């Protein structure tokens, strides 16, 4: 594999919704599909993102108005621009999950394309962590807008651990190949599914701290923090064996 995107978070180059010379990330999903019970905010002095000693912290906080605000970073924009996309490759993030019921952090992959072009796309959820189950995280595979005669795919899978996920840092990864998608925890495979043959556009990474997902947030700590050490993307050599 060859590295095509190495975000070490020595600084944060992010804009509201446009990838460019000064922005490797946008602060909202390109299709304007922000979700959950916390509003995703723009970067800035009072925003949810801070970087210190090579660590990104995304903070979810309830304001004086009683509303929650948090953050999301996507490595593409509504015009399909970004330098982190690859159709086949390995995607990895080193993260320390927050503690507390109602938290819903995630590292996931979406299809890189202009949002005005409706087409079949793949979504790979490398990790979704639900704070009310601290010793488990979820992985998932979704195929959206399949061609006629093909059903949508929505499969998820729980990865159970002996100790709470937030107790330490973990590497969450996914290898997307022409035949298989393999999910990894700390570089060890934990789940595998066939790659849908309809998969075509490049995939790019998204990392976020959402709240809710249908679960109550009345006991969520205020504030709550997700820490991210790095996000790496490697393109797969087309001659590499698929396993």
From TrEMBL:
It comes from the Bacteria. Pfam families: Glyco_hydro_16. Residues 22-239 form the GH16 domain. GO terms for biological process: carbohydrate metabolic process. SUPFAM superfamilies: Concanavalin A-like lectins/glucanases. GO terms for molecular function: hydrolase activity, hydrolyzing O-glycosyl compounds. PANTHER family: GLYCOSIDE HYDROLASE FAMILY 16 PROTEIN, GLYCOSYL HYDROLASE-RELATED. Belongs to the glycosyl hydrolase 16 family. This is GH16 domain-containing protein. The lineage of its organism: Bacteria, Pseudomonadati, Pseudomonadota, Alphaproteobacteria, Sphingomonadales.
């Amino acid at each position: 594999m060859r590295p095509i995107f190495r975000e070490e978070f020595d600084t944060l180059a992010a804009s509201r919704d446009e990838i460019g010379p000064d922005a490797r990330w946008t602060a909202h999903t390109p299709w304007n599909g922000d979700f959950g019970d916390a509003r995703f905010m723009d970067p800035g002095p009072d925003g949810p993102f801070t970087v210190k000693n090579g660590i990104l912290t995304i903070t979810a906080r309830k304001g004086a108005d009683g509303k929650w605000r948090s953050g999301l970073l996507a490595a593409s924009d509504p015009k399909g621009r970004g330098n982190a996309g690859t159709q086949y490759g390995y995607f990895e993030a080193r993260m320390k999950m927050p503690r507390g019921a109602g938290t819903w952090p995630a590292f996931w992959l979406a299809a890189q394309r202009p949002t005005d072009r409706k087409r079949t796309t793949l979504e790979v959820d490398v990790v979704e962590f639900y704070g009310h189950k601290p010793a488990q995280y979820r992985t998932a595979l979704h195929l959206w807008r399949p061609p006629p005669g093909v059903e949508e795919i929505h499969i998820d899978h729980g990865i159970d651990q002996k100790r709470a996920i937030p107790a330490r840092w973990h590497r969450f990864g996914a290898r997307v190949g022409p035949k298989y998608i393999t999910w990894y925890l700390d570089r060890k495979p934990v789940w595998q599914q066939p790659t849908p043959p309809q998969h075509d556009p490049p995939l790019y990474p998204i990392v976020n701290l959402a709240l809710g997902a249908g679960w109550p947030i009345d006991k969520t700590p205020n504030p709550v923090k997700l820490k991210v050490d790095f996000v790496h993307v490697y393109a797969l050599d087309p001659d590499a064996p698929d396993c």
